Amino acid sequence: MFALDFITSKQHRPGNGEMIMTSNATFHRPRTNSMGSVTSEASTAKSRSPHTEGHIKWLATLDCGSEVMCTKFSPDGTLFAVGLSNGMVKIFQSDGTLVYSLSDNDVLKTRLPCTSVQFIPFSISENEDKRHVLLAVYASGFVKFWHYPSSKCLQTISENPPKQCLCSSFSAMGDRLAVGGADPAINIYDTQTKELIRALEPSDSRDVMNGHRFRVFSVRYHPTDQHMIISGGWDDTVQFWDDRVKHAVRHIYGPHICGDAMDIDPVHNHVITGSWRRNNVLQIWDIDSGSKIKDVPQDALHKCMLYCCQWLGNDYIVCGGNEQNMARIIDRGTLNTVAQVVDLERGVYCVDNDRQQHHLPKIVIGSSTNVYLLKQEKKG
């Protein structure tokens, strides 16, 4: 089960032929076979290297030097941030070039994981300063706003009472921030003042399921509804909230969320959930009715318990997890696997895509100490 104690100090040793980009920007081109799979330069390799199958191109492997916990693209897709188990945050250009590293005395002192990163949403009309602010939350209980071009922490919120922070989400306009973690409450902050607006939590009655009972691993503001939030965690529920009201307004029972494994499609008003279990791992739900639309079947050859999932454009789903350490892209219409990354050393704990409509999406996958940078390709 996804928890902070899975982190080890074990060093990752990439297989021969992998493309590796370290913090000093040294990298090598991978060798691929006719199927597009990464191959070893030594035919006597003792173990299989990570490789791709299907309609996806391997762009780079970025060695971050510490376990990768979370990743997120900027709204314009030009950057992506990576949070690490040692508390560091690294920011890369979309081609994989490292441009910024973020830490301060709090991070260096606690050395606890950065568990969620988010670029503040912005529009073209907004001032330049807001376009360069990154949120990072930590298992230490810190919530930090970074001006990443200067590597300066602008402000720190300390969760009170102290708790492990595990997930975060901005409202569509970026004026409110939701933070969830090791206790059932979800805190809502004013992004400008950094003041706590309210805590979303269950009522005292155990007979009413209007909030979480265990830790919260995923929280998501609706992309177009300014006040709707969904959240999920270990209590096998997805809770629906209005951020102006203390208690959840309704819930779905079923998904066992252990990572960033929920996403909202605002066009069809669907939610996708990924569960860390062996059966019914990937499910699609209707937001308005709360009814389950379908179970997405597991791949016949590569079954996976999920830590993360999200919509990939309008037509696809991307997800990842462990048991068989892999990430998978699924056609939303046929529910068939169209691409996958398999034979990873560790489970896939995070995934994100650049959400740019003018090209096929770039995708980042976090596993062990590496971020894998990929690009979806056209079918046929």
Describe it for me?
This protein has one helix at 105-110, and strands at 20-21, 31-32, 38-39, 51-54, 56-63, 68-73, 79-84, 89-93, 98-102, 114-119, 133-138, 142-147, 152-158, 165-170, 176-181, 186-190, 196-200, 216-221, 228-233, 237-242, 250-253, 262-265, 270-274, 282-286, 292-296, 305-312, 316-322, 326-331, 337-342, 348-353, 362-367, 370-376. The protein has 1 helix and 32 strands. The relative contact order is 0.13. The two termini are 38 Å apart. By secondary structure, it is mainly β. Helix content is 2%, strand content 46%. A hairpin with a 2-residue loop joins strand 31 (362-367) and strand 32. The chain has a 5-stranded mixed sheet with strand order 1-5-32-31-30, with no helix packed on it. A 5-stranded antiparallel sheet has the order 4-29-28-27-26, with no helix packed on it. It is globular, with a radius of gyration of 20 Å.
Short overview:
The chain is 2% helix and 46% strand.
